[in-house]
Specification:
It is a single chain. With about 80 residues, the chain is mainly alpha-helical. The protein has a single domain, classed as Orthogonal Bundle (Non-ribosomal Peptide Synthetase Peptidyl Carrier Protein, Chain A). It is about 65% helix and about 0% strand. Helix 1 crosses helix 2 and helix 1 packs across helix 4. The model has no long low-confidence stretch (mean pLDDT about 95).
Amino acid sequence: MAESVDRQTVFEKVAAAVATVLSVPVDRIGEDSSFTADLVVDSLLMYEIVIDLEELFDTRISDNDIDQIETVSDVVDFIIARKD
């Protein structure tokens, strides 16, 4: 049960950061939202998001890691894996 609480907390923080960078309502961001298809994020916006997330979660997201991220859920999984 604690894992789902952590996941929800991480998701909420990720969604808020993404919504801020994209200037969209946070309720438009779901775990299954695709950065390219649903949120229309180009490479520059993705780097802005990554910079915010790195600061927010005190982690490093490499270019290779960014290439593997397609959805908001992928970001949440990445951050949770780094916390363990």
